[in-house]
Specification:
The chain has 3 helices and 5 strands. The protein has 143 residues and is of the alpha+beta class. The strands form 2 sheets. The chain has a 3-stranded antiparallel β-sheet. A two-stranded antiparallel sheet has the order 1-2. A hairpin with a 2-residue loop joins β1 and β2.
Length: 143
Amino acid sequence: MAIVINQDLSIPDAEVRFSAARSGGPGGQHVNKVNSRVILEFDVMHTSVLSPYQKRKIFEMVGHRMNQQGILRLQAQRHRTQSANRADLLERFIEIFRDALRPVKSRVATRVPRSVREKRLEEKKLRTQVKRVRQTPKNLDDA
């Protein structure tokens, strides 16, 4: 089975490693004896399913969550059960990849309307007039 990111990309289960650990925080006796925190590790830099462009886009978005070897490490400990934390973690993992690999819309160049250009020039003329009125008159006798 594979983790489906979008219609063009799915990541094989063999490339994603899950582990469990004891969750921190309050919880009494139960939290001290069960491994409910789930940790996901995925080697972004050495995977075969991503193109160099996709790897770069993912690194730009979640590079702060990667170590020196290029391994993305995520963890979830919000829920009390390991299965719920695993499902939450998979959902976040997929969302991170979808956001990073979403195509960027290119800007469509448009012309500035004539009325806008004319309004800008008219405002410049008005500003020039205001500055000219505020100037101190030059004394013609000194020249």
